[in-house]
Design a protein that fits this description.
about 120 residues, 6 helices
């Protein structure tokens, strides 16, 4: 385990907000021929979920065997595809944040135990 803290999330949140706004803009007005985001969204939730899974596997590989730069790059890819997948299902960042806020202060072990059949 690394001793490096996650650090301040203010800049991270600002960048995520900007990326989310760009995804929303591309979903409404971009052409599939000029926008990867629009093209991916046009394929529906199944395709965005598949792409998210592919990116998750790439991040897992990076986490286990690659340098910090590759981990950061694969993390960015995963977060982008996560946002696109949320958009494809009509789930807002506020909805996700509300769930995280509700769980804050609850032991992860207690929270996991509250969901049947969901173990570590």
């Amino acid at each position: 385990m690394s001793d490096t803290p996650l650090g301040y999330a203010g800049f991270f949140g600002k960048v995520l907000q900007e990326v989310a706004a760009t995804i929303d803009e591309r979903a409404k007005s971009a052409n599939e021929g000029t926008s990867y985001t629009a093209k991916l969204l046009s394929k529906g939730p199944e395709r965005t979920a598949k792409k998210l899974g592919e990116e998750a596997v790439e991040l897992v590989i990076a986490l286990t065997s690659q340098e910090k730069e590759e981990v950061a790059g694969e993390s960015a890819d995963l977060l982008y595809h996560f946002l696109v997948a949320l958009r494809s299902r009509g789930v807002s960042l506020e909805e996700v944040a509300n769930v995280l806020a509700e769980r804050q202060g609850i032991s992860g072990l207690v929270e996991k135990a509250s969901r049947e059949g969901d173990g570590i």
